[in-house]
Amino acid sequence: MQIFMRYVHIVSAVSAVGGLVFLSVCLSPATRLLDDGFSDTWMKMIRHRFHRVVWISIGGLIVSGIYNWAMLAGVYKAMGPVGGAIIGTKVLLAMILFTVVWLGSSGILKPKAAQMINLHLAAVIILLASVLRYYRLEHLQSLIGG
Ligand code: HEM
What we know:
mainly alpha
């Protein structure tokens, strides 16, 4: 089950963040070559379909993330303030990212602005996940005297 949930977490993050990078770095700039009338419809259709992928990925991230957190809560506690601070900040930023997705898809925030904010948030969240994993494994290694 732990392997499956880790798999779901990684696949969801890869699908949503990979799609976001492709959309922002490749597709949006290339769309400027198209006629104004056509490019608006084109981007609207792509964003509409991409949002479906994003909402499914968010579901996967929340379910697997809460499961992973519950499984690792004991280790984070044993790590002291560092464990709590990193997982707390990661989850807080994830909540902000989900809110920005909602603001973008409901038209409250411009889609391009939402895209750019989330690109940066995702980069920080993935960095925090890497740092957390490093300290968690280092802590476990110190317990077994490695
Ligand atoms: C409700 C939201 C979320 C929760 C509760 C959550 C929780 C977790 C937990 C507990 C871990 C394990 C860290 C460790 O190895 O000690 C993790 C790993 C990870 N998370 Fe999340 N996460 C959430 C959202 C996100 C989002 C939005 C992203 C991407 C933008 C993300 C990307 C990752 C990545 C790449 C890993 C490393 C996977 C691995 O090495 O197993 N997470 N997350």
